[in-house]
């Protein structure tokens, strides 16, 4: 479930294991049928270069493909739109051979030119992609980021079915990056036609295509009958109903009207569900590389002072917060979750100590406290967690106004740098791929601190960034010295306290009685929350 590429796989990448090449259709699957999935909030965008939240991630993954992909329900890499690839001995040149005959939803055949266009698009500043930093190792990234070039010099079209990508340094995560939604291949003519509305009119090569989007009500995905992977998807389509309160969604699931509650099991109903054998049998539990945290915007007074950020870390009672979610988490001490390579064992972080927190505020000249705002997603239990944070900070003299908003509005405020503090719940970080670098670049690194980025603390330390770059300049992702470097990176981050790491949560969801497919598909580690391409109905 958390397999990493070995150095052998990196250096001899053309020798791809047979099991990773494709997917054997489930013999129990019955093709056909529609399913209903619910969400409280509407979807902000389906543009793969921009969308980056819990709600749209799996939707985008079903509409688009990248050069690389994952074996369903796992983090095992396999080729996607690339039929095969080769890697130079020094790990800096990747040559991808594309599949022949793959068509976009508009009917045009995909070529290497589309690959180059898509990578140029996601890295150009005008796109404001929160994932641009993932591509920093591609030659020419610095120039395109600075507006000094229009294209990535390291991406070369060799012929219609071959693209060569040259890196400026070895990058242990590069093949994982090519499997991210941000690396999805899009047709230039569709982006040109719809402009900034491309996210409402997505055109990809994925297993499903958008059939209908009624803002504030529903989205309907239809099966792509021309999908290049044989045998899937099994479903005829998926209806996403939005504006649905999670408790109402659970009731409808119990009545057979909903197949998957996208927002999960409401915490207020969790004990009731688990206490009923019939309902508990439909609960799916999965481990996840997750951290829930409070961001502290270092660009807003008085959070620009280290003693203030340390005080807030000391003031939060993490044990009490885990009880709000029925104990489905453990308190966090650092950005990385315990099961992630590079986690620093034995590090205790900031102890809960209100008196020490008050002393830190006095050290900053704020003995009388101050007022600030905490932004939070308005889906339960997040407002209740925000209230607990508010109470903890009140105890040290900090008055907090809670701004409870729809997910998209919180993300917008965070990206714009307008939120002093954000409780990340409902949007909290779950690894895009199982590597320690993924908890740094987009959410703590300088590349993620720009306009629209997910580094909501706006923390940027160039010396730590340099450490992170060095840690990724390996061909072997699991090299002990590399993981030690990542441990050092996160310890340096904690010295600056741009976050309050709060808890590492286990994942729970439910499915209706008629849903089929391996349970891992409903807590898929990379098609969060559900891998719609491979689930099916049994009636």
TrEMBL record:
This is ABC peptide transporter, periplasmic binding protein. Residues 76-450 form the Solute-binding protein family domain. Residues 1-20 form the signal peptide. GO terms for cellular component: ATP-binding cassette (ABC) transporter complex; outer membrane-bounded periplasmic space. Belongs to the bacterial solute-binding protein 5 family. One of its GO terms (molecular function) is peptide transmembrane transporter activity. PANTHER family: OLIGOPEPTIDE-BINDING PROTEIN APPA (PTHR30290:SF9), PERIPLASMIC BINDING COMPONENT OF ABC TRANSPORTER (PTHR30290). InterPro entries: Peptide/Ni-bd (IPR030678), SBP_5 (IPR039424), SBP_5_CS (IPR023765), SBP_5_dom (IPR000914). It is found in: Periplasm. GO terms for biological process: peptide transport. It holds the Pfam family SBP_bac_5. It comes from Salipiger bermudensis (strain DSM 26914 / JCM 13377 / KCTC 12554 / HTCC2601). Keywords: Signal, Transport.
């Amino acid at each position: 479930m958390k397999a990493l590429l070995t150095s052998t796989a990196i250096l001899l990448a053309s020798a791809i294991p047979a099991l990773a090449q494709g997917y054997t259709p489930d013999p129990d699957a019955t093709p056909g049928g529609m399913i209903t999935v619910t969400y409280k909030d509407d979807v902000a965008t389906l543009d793969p270069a921009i969308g980056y939240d819990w709600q749209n991630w799996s939707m985008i993954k079903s509409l688009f493909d990248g050069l690389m992909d994952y074996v369903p329900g796992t983090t095992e890499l396999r080729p996607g739109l690339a039929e095969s690839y080769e890697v130079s001995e020094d790990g800096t040149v990747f040559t991808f051979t594309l599949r022949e005959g793959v068509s976009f939803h508009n009917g045009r055949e995909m070529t290497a030119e589309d690959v180059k266009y898509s990578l140029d698009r996601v890295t150009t500043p005008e796109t404001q992609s929160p994932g641009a930093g993932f591509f920093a190792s591609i030659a020419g990234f610095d120039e395109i980021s600075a507006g000094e070039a229009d294209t990535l010099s390291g991406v070369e079209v060799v012929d219609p079915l071959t693209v060569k990508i040259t890196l400026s340094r070895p990058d242990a995560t590069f093949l994982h990056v090519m499997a991210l939604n941000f690396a999805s291949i899009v047709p230039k003519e569709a982006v040109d036609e719809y402009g900034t509305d491309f996210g409402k009119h997505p055109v990809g090569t994925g297993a499903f295509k958008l059939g209908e989007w009624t803002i504030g009500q529903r989205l309907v995905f239809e099966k792509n009958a021309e999908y290049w992977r044989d045998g899937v998807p099994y479903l005829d389509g998926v209806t996403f109903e939005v504006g649905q309160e999670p408790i109402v969604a659970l009731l409808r699931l119990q009545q057979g009207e909903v197949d998957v509650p996208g927002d999960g099991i409401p915490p207020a109903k969790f004990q009731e569900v688990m206490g009923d054998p019939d309902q508990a049998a439909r609960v799916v539990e999965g481990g996840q590389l997750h951290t829930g945290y409070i961001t502290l915007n270092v660009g807003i007074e008085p959070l620009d002072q280290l003693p203030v950020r340390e005080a807030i870390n000391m003031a939060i009672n993490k044990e009490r917060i885990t009880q709000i979610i029925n104990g489905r988490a453990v308190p966090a001490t650092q950005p990385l979750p315990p099961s992630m390579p590079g986690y620093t064992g034995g590090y205790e972080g900031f102890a809960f100590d209100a008196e020490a927190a008050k002393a830190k505020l006095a050290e900053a000249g704020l003995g009388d406290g101050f007022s600030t705002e905490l932004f939070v997603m308005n889906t339960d239990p997040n407002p209740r967690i925000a209230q607990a944070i508010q109470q903890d900070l009140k105890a040290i003299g900090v008055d907090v106004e809670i701004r409870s908003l729809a997910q998209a509005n919180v993300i917008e405020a965070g990206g714009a740098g307008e939120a002093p503090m954000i409780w990340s719940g409902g949007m909290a970080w779950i690894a895009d791929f199982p590597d320690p670098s993924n908890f740094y670049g987009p959410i703590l690194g300088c590349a993620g601190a720009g306009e629209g980025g997910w580094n909501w603390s706006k923390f940027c330390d160039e010396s730590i960034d340099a450490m992170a770059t060095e840690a990724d300049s390996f061909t072997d992702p699991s090299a002990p010295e590399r993981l030690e470097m990542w441990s050092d990176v996160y310890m340096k981050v904690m010295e600056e306290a741009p976050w309050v790491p709060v808890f590492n949560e286990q994942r729970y969801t439910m499915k209706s009685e008629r849903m089929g497919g391996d349970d891992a598909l409903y807590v898929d580690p990379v098609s969060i929350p559900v891998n719609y391409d491979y689930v099916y109905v049994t009636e």
